[in-house]
Design goal:
59 residues; alpha+beta; two-stranded antiparallel sheet; 29% helix; 14% strand; elongated
């Protein structure tokens, strides 16, 4: 499901910040579901602080 993939990618990007593995907006995590042909990517240049988990039922 797309919503679950979005949540996984949000969590991965949040973890990068929490662990000090990214500087400003450099670096990001993406996700892919090959079986369903889905890909979710954090846009470059988007501040991590502005990212929120996907809304329930979004996607």
């Amino acid at each position: 499901m797309l919503a679950a993939l979005k949540t996984d990618v949000w969590r991965a990007n949040h973890d990068l910040v929490e662990r000090g593995l990214v500087i400003e907006t450099w670096g990001n995590a993406s996700g892919i579901d090959r079986a369903r042909g889905l890909m979710v990517i954090k846009p470059s240049g988007v501040p991590y602080e502005g990212m929120r988990p996907p809304a329930e039922g979004f996607g």
